[in-house]
Amino acid sequence: MKKMFLFLSLFLLTGCIPEPEIDIDGVQQGEVYVNDQTINIDEEAAGEYTLHLNGNVIQNDHTVSGNGEYELTITAKRWWNEITKTIAFEIDDEPPAKPSFKDEVKPLYYKEANFELEKEEDVTYKVKIDYEPFDISQAYTKEGTHKLYIQSIKDNGLVADRKETFEIDNRTYSRHEVDAFKKFFFHNEDQEGTKFIKWSDHVGVHVYGEPTATDMKALESNLQTINQILPVDLNLRESQPFAGSNRINVHFVPTYQFKDYGFNEELRNNDYMVVGYAMPTLLTHDDELFETKILIGTDTDQQLRKTTILHELMHALGFYGHFENNPNSILYPYTDTNLTELSSTDKKLIEILYRKDIKPGMTEAEVEQTLNDWIVK
Ligand SMILES: [Zn+2]
């Protein structure tokens, strides 16, 4: 019987003393928190316990605050059973940096665009082009205008993002066309200083005075041609629009009335007679065209007037100056050419001026550098 009793008491001792348990609320292994965290241990389950945070004793319900890496060591003991657990966690309330690139995103690319992100530690990046996920280690080659969206996601869950627009434009220029552009803007005796002024939004074309049906037909067909090249549209407007919109005012009036419309120079001298006139009348603070005036002399020959309309429209696009020695261009200052169409070089000049990366204040070298990828070698 005595043996039996010992056996039973041994059974009791091993079976009835519960193991200590470590049950922690507030922090978890490997987590990164944005806010303060309060550490709570289930005292009942733990029995006799100690809590150390980065080596210092803390009490139950201790609140951890401040950015940093933390290590919580818990020991729990019940009679001779002792267990230990370690929980590493971090508090970090800093958001990730706004995504940035090794080279800034350019407005225009030839054939392909490559983007390289400046990567931060503990940050993952989600990239989308035109709302579709994109692997940024690849080159992007689809022609047209695109939206690039990058989101930085830090391991604390905070995010930052960035949106860019870029274009892949594969239209090329010959050496001759680029040289003509540079000659016009940087070596033009008619134009003091070089300014790239252009329209940045759609333009209403308002006609005043007494155009003939032929004048209107010429004007409309010229606008159509120009609109195929421009990133903005020039549209004839019938009604009086509100004053706050981009506009070209075209006045069909006899040349002797030009003085009433702000033309203060001689109409005639030995060499020439003025038949048309164009001048920008309002610019925005960013040197964008806002209002331009065109005068077309109605007391001139109809055929000549067709040339004049196109010539003055070309000025109104931002080409203030002439090609004195190039009768193939509509920017030739005399009407004896009877030109009624833009030359292929004229079209390219418009195309170049209206590129997003051709900006006011650029030097000739900067223009050359900017166009370099597009010049056919
Ligand atoms: Zn002119």
TrEMBL record:
Entry protein name? Peptidase M10 metallopeptidase domain-containing protein
Q: Which domain of life is it from?
A: Bacteria
List residues traversing the bilayer.
none
Q: Which organism is it from?
A: Aquibacillus albus
Q: Which InterPro entries match?
A: DUF2927 (IPR021323), MetalloPept_cat_dom_sf (IPR024079)
What Pfam families would the database entry show?
Answer: DUF2927
* PROSITE patterns in the cross-refs: PROKAR_LIPOPROTEIN (PS51257)
